[in-house]
Amino acid sequence: MPVAIITGASKGLGRALAEALAGRGWDLVLDARGGRALAEAARAVAGYGARVEALPGDVTDAGHRAALVRAARGFGGVDLVVHNASALGAEPLRRLAELPLEGLRRALEVNTVAALGLVREALPWLRGSAEGTVITLSSDAAEEAYETWGGYGASKAALDQLAAVLAVEEPWLRVWAVDPGDMATDLYAAAVPEDDSPRPAPADVVPAFVRLLDERPASGRYSAPSLLEAR
């Protein structure tokens, strides 16, 4: 069975992707900060017949990242790392003139530094996998200048660049930075609580990720809505 590590997997896109992969025969190591929600997600994922290890913790902690990789090795290795964990930097979002610098540091640590740290921890086993893959979660805020999204967008832009360089340095891996598009998630609700316009559920976006795993296109940055439209 292929083995995936998914961070931020207790709800939203992380949980939806975990359930989809479990249904396709993957074994999974799941991370989130909230232990109760993560345990509930793990039970749902295990219902598909997958082996599941759920490790609550903070991805900014090097020891926690090492534990995630050890758990995956216990299942046989690491074939896929999905860095889905994200921090906004401020809730709700704020203009740069009002953004606490500690919030910006938190966004960079979770969204960018922790992603590289986890990939580096898993890299020997990703290199040893016939289909070693890294997926990072991007955002259109990484490319567009949206008011109040500066801190979060900067962290995602930095993550996009890390993914692009990793793809050059590790040409035998697939490294995809994926912009999932707007989704109905707790993260978006915390970012812009006054915006209650309808958005796709995370489960509706997951087929874009499955398509990437099935077709294995070249490393690069992809838009989930575009992948879904082209199906």
From TrEMBL:
GO MF entries: oxidoreductase activity
Presence of the UniProt keyword Oxidoreductase in the record: yes
Sorted UniProt keywords: Oxidoreductase
GO cellular component: membrane
SUPFAM superfamilies hit by this protein: NAD(P)-binding Rossmann-fold domains
Superkingdom: Bacteria
Entry annotated with the keyword Lyase: no
InterPro entries registered for this protein in UniProt: NAD(P)-bd_dom_sf, Sc_DH/Rdtase_CS, SDR_fam
CDD domains with a match to the protein in the record: SDR_c
Pfam families linked: adh_short
Alphabetized PANTHER family for the sequence: DEHYDROGENASE/REDUCTASE SDR FAMILY MEMBER 7B (PTHR44196), DEHYDROGENASE_REDUCTASE SDR FAMILY MEMBER 7B (PTHR44196:SF1)
UniProt similarity note: Belongs to the short-chain dehydrogenases/reductases (SDR) family.
Name used for this protein in its record: Oxidoreductase
Source organism per UniProt: Streptomyces naganishii JCM 4654
